[in-house]
Amino acid sequence: MSNSILSSILILFLPFAVVLSNLRIFINPWFPQYEYSRAGFPTDPQGMDNQTRLKLANRAIMYLVNSSDISYLTQDRDINGNPLYTERELRHMEDVKLVVGRALGLWRLSVFMVISAFVWLGLKPNTDIIIKKSLSYGAGIIVVSIICLLAYILINFDSFFTTFHQMFFESGTWTFSYTDMLIRLFPPKFWSDVATYIAGASLFEGVLLWWAARFT
Hints:
By secondary structure, this protein is an all-alpha fold.
């Protein structure tokens, strides 16, 4: 394979590998625990204790990355045996699982392509400059894109949140009442923090990669 093709692969897939790696890090039980313990994080409006809230949030998150069908969540009941989630919430979680599955598939492909292109170029003679330029360009795309995204999030998170859902979900399927369980477990503040942390981590890593490619 030619150096130009390997370079293009490295540049193209590096941003996906970095950003989606951070996404995978945050799709884990540790993050709700961190969020719920923060001062100022919204408490449950109906008085659910944090231990119960954390247990349910972790089950919802694990559903997104395990091989179970939606029955994994329909098993969750209150003390009276009533379902915790409405049919609309369950359908949305099925949609989210599909989107997450596709994103993680792209993540695995991107990591594989980046590593393969990097190793392949590294085994060829006189490719140091090509590798450094490819990493520099790929990291530059990350930095510029994330700065624009962070600006959008910080200026108007509601608009970002709405636009994101309109891109991936059918209209009317992702809006819920503040009394619905999904909102009680994951209020808007949760998603604002997720977006900001993933963008912030990706920006830091992009700058670090750019610096390493340019000056090491």
